[in-house]
Amino acid sequence: MDKMYDVKNIMLAENGRKRIEWAAQYMPVLANISKRFAREKPLKGQVVAACLHITTETANLLKTLSAGGAKVFACASNPLSTQDDVAASLVRDFNISIFAIKGESKETYYAHANASLDGNPTITMDDGADVVGLLHSSRREKLKNVIGGTEETTTGVIRLRAMAREKVLKYPIIAVNDAQTKHLFDNRYGTGQSTLDGIIRATNFLIAGSTVVIAGYGWCGKGAALRARGLGARVIVTEVDPIKALEAVMDGFWVQPMERAAKEGDVFITVTGDISVLCKEHFEEMKDGAIIANSGHFNVEIDIKALASLSVSKRTIRDFVEEYVMKDGRKLFLLAEGRLINLAAAEGHPAMVMDMSFANQALSAEYIVKNAKSLRADVYSVPREIDEEIAALKLKSMGIDIDVLSPKQKKYLTSWETGT
Fold first, then answer.
1. pLDDT, tens only, 390-412
2. CA distance 89 to 93
3. Cα→Cα distances 266→208, 292, 345, 398, Å
4. What is the pTM of this model?
5. Residue 260 contacts by C-beta under 8 Å, 6 or more apart in sequence?
6. What confidence tier does 1 reach under pLDDT thresholds 50, 70, 90?
7. Which domains are assigned to the chain?
8. Are strands 331-335 and 321-326 parallel, antiparallel or unpaired?
9. Measured between alpha carbons, how far is 120 from 138 in angstroms, rounded to an integer?
10. CA 96, CA 71: separation in Å to the nearest integer?
11. How confident is the model over 328-337, as pLDDT tens digits?
C-alpha cells in the first residue's frame, strides 16, 4: 500500500467492504459511470481532495473517481459522520487515502482536512466548503494546482457564492447541490427519511401522536415534514421566508413562529443552514422531555452554549443522547451534539438517492477537467445535459420509459407563429 491514511482500525475493513458492496447494488447510475470511467480514464493525472461524509455511498463515489484515473485523498466533512469500517475498507481494499475517524476532535478534524490537501489536489470535492476555506486561508500555497471543485450542500454553496461575490474565490466550483437530480431528491427524500431514521435510532421515540417542529421549509425541511407526517406526527413548520411559509401552509402544515412552537413541540428538527435557530428563549419554553435534533450541515443551528448555561447538569443517557437538566427540573435531550443526526446516529441517505447525487459529483469532475481553461473563478450550476443524463439513466435502471417529443412538437415549443 503506497498511500498514507488515518482510520480507527484497519481490521474493520472486511465488514466495511461488504457494506460498500451492499450499497453498490443500489447505485446503478454510478456503476454505469464507473464502467465508462474505467475504460476512458477521464480523470487521469488528476488528484482529488474529497471532504465528504465517509459512508458506504461515498465509498462508491471514491471508487469511481479512482477508476477514472484520479488519485484520491479523502477526509470526513463532519466529525461524527464517518463509518469506521468503510474508511478501513477504502484503505485496505481500494488503496485510497482516507483520513477520518468517527467522533474525532475538532483538532483532528482539521488535521485530517489538511492531510487531504497534502496530496496537492487539482480538484476539490466539498460537503460544506471546509476544504475550500482552508485553501483560501492557511493552505494558500496549494491553490496553484487546483483547476476546479464541486460542492455538495446548500450551506457550502451559500458560503462559496459569498466568496464569489466578494471576488475572493480563486477557482471555479460546480454547485452539485443545485442540480435537480440532487436537491429535488437527495435533500427531500434522502434527508427526510434519514433524519427521522436517526432520531428514532437514537431515542426509540414514537413519532405517531407527537408534535414535531421543523425549522426551515427548504427541500430538506419539506422532506423531514413529509416523513414526520407520514409517521403520524402533527407537524409545525417555522420559517422566515413568507413564500416558503405560505407553501408549508398550502401543503397542510401548521406554521408558527418558533417562540410559540417551542411550547408545543415534542421533537425539534433544525434544517435552515443558519445560526441560533433554537436559542435561550426557546429552551426556556420547551416541554419537559423535548428532543432537539439538527439536520443542517453545521452544529450552529442549536445554541448549545445557551442550553448548557440554563442547565444544572448534563449526562449522556443513551448513545448520541445528552440529557440537560434545567434549573426548574425540566429535562431537554440534545441529539448527536447538535451535529447531523442522520449521519451521527444512523447511516445517512439511502444508496438509491445518493446514486444520483454522486453521479453528479463524478460527471461534474469530468466536466471540470474538460472545461477548466474556459471556466473563471465563480460558482456554476451543473450543466443541464448532465442533470438530464443522470435522470435518464436513473429511469432506465428503474425500468421506466417516458415519451419523446415528435419533431412537430419540438417545433411548436420553439416557435411563436402558432397562436390560438
1. 999 999 999 999 999 999 999 99
2. 5
3. 11, 9, 19, 38
4. 0.92
5. none
6. very low
7. 10-182+349-397 (3.40.50.1480), 189-344 (3.40.50.720)
8. antiparallel
9. 14
10. 8
11. 999 999 999 9
